[in-house]
Amino acid sequence: SSDLAQRVAALSKAEERHGNIEERLRQMEAQLEEKNQELQRARQREKMNEEHNKRLSDTVDKLLSESNERLQLHLKERMASLEDKNTLIREVERAKKVIEEIQHEKDQLLLEIEAMRSEE
User: Fold this and answer.
1) Rg of the chain's alpha carbons, rounded to an integer?
2) For 63-77, how does the pLDDT look when each residue is reduced to its tens digit (9 = 90+)?
3) Which of these, 107, 110, 103, lies nearest to 118 by C-alpha position?
4) Looking at the whole model, is its pTM more than 0.70?
5) Torsion sign (Cα): 28, 29, 32, 33
């Protein structure tokens, strides 16, 4: 009888241990599930960060490209303006030369007229 009692006690102890192991397993499974969800959320965040970074990078590229185009255009306009200015300067120089030549011819003519008058 005491033998049976011992066996029953041992059995209930074993069942208790088994119950404890099952409880521990359930806890570990719950923890694993929680970790999996954390990992999923972290991956989701990472994906969002990557998308955000790509959008920022694209925006920066676009802005740089637009800024570059504006600078190029501005440079072209400045160059054209300088070219116009140089053309004007050359035209003014030519006009001055023509005026000088006319002035010189006029002086020559005046001298000739003076010479003729003095001959009269």
Assistant:
1) 51
2) 999 999 999 999 999
3) 110
4) no
5) negative
